[in-house]
Amino acid sequence: MGMPSMPELLIILAIVVLLFGAKKIPELAKGMGSGIRNFKKAMKEDEEEEVAANKAEKQVEQKSDTAKSDKPEEKKEA
Questions:
Q1: What is the pTM of this model?
Q2: In terms of DSSP H, where are the helices of the chain?
Q3: Between 71 and 37, where is the model more confident?
Q4: Alpha-carbon distance 35 to 42, whole Å?
Q5: What does the alpha-carbon distance between residue 9 and residue 77 come to, in Å, rounded to a whole number?
């Protein structure tokens, strides 16, 4: 089974127009487009939050490493 040929695509298109009507198809396409746009936006925001969390975690690690190295070493007396 390969790709549908032109006559098969036209038949499928005719069935879709009969089922949904010519006025409903642009609304469906618009809804799908906005849904995809919202999905991409949410994915981008999620990635930005993840990057910000990683940066904050690295800063905390650097601060704790700096704080450990700044502590004066105690001399043990025997």
A1: 0.50
A2: 6-20, 24-70
A3: 37
A4: 11
A5: 90
